[in-house]
Amino acid sequence: MKKPSYHFGSFALALLLSALPLAACAALQIQSWTLSNGARVLFVENHAIAMLDVSIEFDAGTRRDPATKAGTAALTNLMLTRGVAASGEQPALNESQILDGLADVAAQRGDSVSQDRAGITLRTLSSLAERQIALDLLARLLAQPTFPVAALDRDKARTIARIREAQTKPEEIASRAFWSALYGDHPYAHQQTAESVATIEREDLVAFHRQHYVANRAVITMIGDITRSDADQIAQRLTAQLSQGAALPALPIVAVAAGSELRIAHPASQSHILIGMPALVRGDPDFFALTVGNYILGGGGFVSRLTSEVREKRGLTYSVYSYFSPLAQPGPFQIGLQTKREQTDEALAVVRKTVASYLKNGPTDAELKAAKDNLTGGFALRIDNNRKLLDTLAVIGFYQMPLNYLDTWTRNISKVSIAQIKAAFQRKLAFGNLNTIVVGQSGAEAQSK
Length: 449
What we know:
This protein is an alpha+beta fold. The chain has 18 helices and 14 strands.
């Protein structure tokens, strides 16, 4: 095992003082080390409650879908709990037995798949007997899934039904068109369809699992009522039966092209509008300036500039928002709103004028101060329970962000200046590269634009 590194979370510690017993706070720290098999571990020891939260993630998100079989990543992750093979003296388990086994020890399992990553979470009692049963089941789910054909057929049918239903909804149509417009042939544009899911076979899931659910690309995060030695043993147990994965092929570069506008007919009474472009990589030094700047532009709810211009002054929408979604490669900047169909062009004009002005002039001193006060004042709520902290640790671990991220967050927010916001927005956004999707106009209206 490589030498562990430690980071004592002084700022996170201070934020949690009011919520946790003093003895627990005194022991709270973020520890990180790498196992001999290449798995990375992040751990926070917290004895405030007799629980353990665990996450294990892999570079197995939708960007790794085979080009012609979008949906493979999601189905692989979904079917990890459908059956496990026999191993040594341990018998094979079907889906019901797995779920009953977790329920018997009051353990809760979750799963997630995004563009970059996929994995499983587990919440279990920290008492030795219960946690061993839950963790043994988790280890088997990760290493020995059987992907039974009958369950695959059922899950495919359910997935296809959900896709077909979603594709009737204007918000889903807009989202799919948005990602296609921004990412074209890049794997970030992979979106499962009824047709692509129908082609996925058991062998595809077996191959995807073998390639991507591997020890040397595992990121394990834990927070709870165990010791550092316990955490190391758990991490080794969870990855002991996982194979070593070969290097993955490099993904193509995200190409940012000139913006376009697409209007799609739909009988909805309102137009659903999305505007954006690829913009931000996780860990980019502009992150904090963009976070503060976007809070002012459209991330601050009723106090944002877009809300003031589009809703308050003109009554063109109930809600308008903007955000940056950083990924391993440039993730999207997105503006979204809904408006009456007959007000579509007016709303678009106001949004574009507001964005153009903001890119040119940046925020005011008053807007900057209010944004910083709100962001720093609300930071404690981001890590006020184990699950939120686990999610943050998983991001830090997967994207290899600094271990002092929590300690320096409010300090970095507080240091942001107007000049930094203007420079960051001008580096990451270009008005001419913004793509616009409008769903909700009649066929004649759509064709006339």
